[in-house]
Write a structure and sequence with these properties.
single chain; about 290 residues; 7-stranded mixed β-sheet; 7 strands; about 40% helix; binds S-adenosylmethionine; methyltransferase; cytoplasm
Length: about 290
């Protein structure tokens, strides 16, 4: 764990939409596969009487924060530290399952976790600090073609080859800011002073690779539906197109599910003004078929 007390934001995205989508019912048992700071879990626990909740997260800091946030619910909440892909889903047990994907604002705002180029920190980016692979390993050990492929596929970065070439020339890199500066210096000025920082896409790509995020999501989409009771709902919030594509197809192709959202649910202008993180959120919901 990091030295400071973990500070998680408790502002869950699409709050009413998630609770309505899960159709939370009294006495129900819910799985929050990404408990984070416990924001959505609290809403679920407060939505109806006698709710039980299983709260999963792979990040130790997140579980510490969630245990504190949800302490008042006592043994109605069970905490599990696990990647949601490795979680042993009990068969036909949950009335609803929620996954709010990706990193939390805590990850981005805690410099020493190495997710953000706004502060100098070791190139880390592990959500589960028990794993050994870090972003520094990916950047310093991958060959040029491999790096370009990662930036293109997972960051949808058009200048992937050019950036990979500069990184290989200038490495080794130890800190987030050193890497961000090298990326900025490798792209044309127009791109350098654009709407988003030129390192944004590369940092997204690295985070996805370090945490094997897309593979974990695929496994989750395969395993989770059988853990729902008939009529139980699964709600998944994604934050970029690579995730949303997997969610859309995973829900649609599951023989156990009926999709309830033809188009993803997105945040209202009012929510975006209050919680900018909700801008890119897409919520999809499906229901386990009765037979
Ligand atoms: C966006 S935050 C969740 C915020 C939470 N819904 C709230 O309201 O406070 C995502 C959380 O999911 C966790 N996470 C991401 N991928 C995971 C995975 N594959 N397995 C388990 N936890 C994961 C992260 O560690 C992070 O704490």
């Amino acid at each position: 764990m990091t030295n400071q007390e973990p500070i998680f934001s408790h502002l869950p995205v699409l709050p009413q939409e998630v609770i309505a989508g899960l159709a939370v019912r009294p006495g129900g048992h819910y799985l929050d596969a990404t408990v984070g700071g416990g924001g959505h879990s609290r809403l679920i626990l407060e939505a109806a009487p006698d709710i039980k909740l299983t709260a999963v997260d792979q990040d130790e800091d997140a579980l510490t924060a969630a245990q504190k946030e949800l302490g008042e619910f006592g043994d109605r909440v069970k905490f599990v530290r696990s990647n949601f892909a490795a979680y042993e889903f009990p068969s036909a047990s949950f009335d609803g399952i929620l996954a709010d994907l990706g990193v939390s604002s805590y990850h981005l705002d805690t410099p020493e976790r190495g997710f953000s180029f706004r502060h100098a920190a070791d190139l880390d980016m592990r959500m589960d600090q028990r794993q050994t692979l870090t972003a520094a390993d990916v950047i310093n050990d991958g060959d040029e073609a491999e790096l370009a492929k990662i930036f293109f596929e997972y960051g949808e970065e058009r200048l992937s080859r050019r950036i990979a070439r500069r990184i290989v020339e200038k490495r080794p890199f130890h800190t987030t800011t050193e890497l961000a500066e090298a990326i900025a210096s490798s792209v044309p000025p127009k791109y350098r002073y654009g709407r988003i920082h030129p390192a944004t896409r590369v940092f997204q790509a690295l985070r996805i690779v370090v945490n094997d995020e897309l593979k974990s999501l695929e496994t989750f989409l395969e395993k989770a539906p059988q853990a729902l009771v008939p009529g139980g709902k699964i709600a998944i919030i994604s934050f970029h197109s690579l995730e949303d594509r997997l969610v859309k197809h995973g829900l649609r192709n599951s023989p156990l599910l009926k999709v309830l959202t033809k188009k993803p649910i997105t945040a209202t202008e009012a929510e975006i003004a209050n919680n900018p993180r909700s801008r890119s959120a897409k919520l999809r919901i499906a229901e386990r078929s009765i037979c």
